[in-house]
Amino acid sequence: MFTGLIEEIGEIKIVKREGKSARVFVKTSLSLEKGASIAVDGVCITVEKIDKDGFWAFLSEESIERTRFKFILKPGIKVNLERPLTLAAKLDGHLVLGHVDTTGIIVSVKKKGSGAEMEFKLKDKYYTKFLVEKGSVAVNGISLTCFNIKDDCFKVALIPETLKKTNLGFARVGDPVNLEFDIIGKYVENMIKGRGI
Questions:
Q1: Is the distance from CB of 167 to CB of 8 less than 8 angstroms?
Q2: What pLDDT digit, counting tens, does each position of 86-98 carry?
Q3: Do the first three CATH levels of 8-82 and 102-194 match, i.e. the same topology?
Q4: Which CATH number fits domain 8-82: 2.40.30.20, 3.30.1360.10, 3.30.1950.10, 3.30.70.600?
Q5: 61: which of 20, 119, 161, 171 fits an S-S bond (Cβ 3.0–4.6 Å)?
Q6: How many helices and strands, by DSSP H and E, does the chain display?
Q7: Residues 6+ away with beta carbon under 8 Å from 187
Q8: Is the pTM of this model over 0.90?
């Protein structure tokens, strides 16, 4: 489980394809242990091996097909990194599982003083129902607040710190992003469906 507060921007340095899956080497200065979970652009994966300047991890076919890695997985890609939440840590951000629901596309980027406003279009309109005005959404693993929800689009405001500490700081129109919606909303919908309401 994660909070959506990014610790570092890492870089995918090596991609070794294994059929429809892949092993990747991610460069980072974060302290990690073999077998630990880590969120890479909001995708929860397991650290397989530690090297002096990063770690190796396996991306399954599901992890690639459901996420933006389907479109951008190659050496040189900058990725947001977050280690898992511990019971001793303060809960900032919001609860993020690292299970990406769908992808989206950046449709506009507007400077707002030293910050910015970004608009995203969902790949699958089905997920629009999980967007709540001023509610939480994870974009590339970043805990953000959505607003101006219209059809299959929504906006977020990015403060200077977010632009500096995450890969949205150099994202451009047309870039794909990973989206994870609030877990509470998904559980509520599942319970209501189960009761036939």
A1: no
A2: 766 666 767 888 9
A3: yes
A4: 2.40.30.20
A5: 20
A6: 4, 12
A7: none
A8: yes
